[in-house]
Each structure stands twice: as structure tokens, then as C-alpha cells.
Amino acid sequence: MSAQWSELSDAEQQLIETAKQSTYNSYAPYSHFYVGAALLKNGVVIPGCNQENAAFPSGLCAERSALFAAGAQYPDQPVLMLAIAVRNSKGEFLEEPASPCGPCRQVLIETETRFKHPVRILLYGTRHTYVMDGIKELMPLSFTQI
Ligand code: THU
After folding, report:
1. What's the average model confidence in pLDDT over 7-17?
2. Residue 96 a catalytic site member
3. Which candidate, 20, 30, 92, 10, places its Cα nearest to that of 62?
């Protein structure tokens, strides 16, 4: 679902603001694609951003950096909501929302399965924000083992 800024709740807007802010902590000297994430868990907001490395596979996406940090700090609390925002090489926020990569979707699936709770997903763009009530909308027929 596509939403305009004014249609988002205060909590959603705040989470997106943190995701936008997190793009400034991104370490992306190779791609210059600055991804920020923020998730809501246990009443706290946990930021994340992509971290790159000269040995390319060693880096990590913004989404997973936030999800794993949250798992490390609050292992028993469900993830309620995740926001993502991206700035390009010119430093501008993308007009169209960016969508999580396959491995991040897979981790989101397992996060939902693990906590038996859907994750509301907010993909921010300056034109509009995509809002989803669970990763299954982005990844039907996914692989699960647990
Ligand atoms: N990236 C993310 O942080 N999240 C995604 O879902 C897709 C890609 C990062 C990885 C890399 O640092 C940069 O964006 C370019 O692919």
C-alpha cells in the first residue's frame, strides 16, 4: 500500500525519521548507496545502516544490522515495525522507496516466525511510502524450517 506522509501515524513517522537519520551513519564508500533502517521493539527504537567492506561479502545491509542488533539486545521481544530509507550518491533521499534484498527478506521471515508476530514494514521515498503488514507480501512461498 502506498501512503502519503500525512497518512502515517506519529509512531510511523518517528521510525522513518530515525531510518533517515541512520543513513548518515552508513559506511558505503563503494556503492555510495546509503541505507538507513530503524526498528521498533520492546518500546525502543533500534537503528541500523549498511556497513560495507573492501572484501565485498563481508559487509551487511541496514535491515539486518538493525535486526541482529535488536536480537542481541532484546532476544525475547517481537519486532513490531521496521522502516527503511535510502540516500543516493548525491546525498538525496530516493524518490521511490527501496525494497529489502532477498537475504534481508529471508531474515525478516524468520523474525516473524520466531516471534509469531508480523513486522509492519515502511519503505520510505520522498514521493510516497510503501506500507506492508508483514514480509509475506514481499516474499510469498518463502523457505521456512522452524
Ligand atoms: N543494501 C541494504 O542495506 N539493504 C538492502 O536491502 C539492499 C542493499 C546495501 C548493501 C550495500 O551496502 C548497498 O546497499 C548497495 O547494494
Report:
1. 98
2. no
3. 20
Binding site membership of 59 for ligand 1 (Cβ less than 6 Å): yes
Taking the complete model, does pTM exceed 0.90, yes or no? Answer: yes
User: 141, 140, 70: which is closest to 111 by C-alpha?
Assistant: 70
Which of 35, 64, 104 has the most ligand 1 atoms within 8 A of CB, as the residue to mutate? Answer: 35
> For the chain, how are helix, strand and coil distributed in percent, rounded to 5?
35, 25, 40
Single-letter amino acid code for the residue at 41: K
Each residue's pLDDT tens digit, 42-54: 899 999 999 999 9
Residue 145 binned pLDDT confidence (cut-offs 50, 70, 90)? confident
**Is the CB of 101 within 6 Å of ligand 1?**
yes
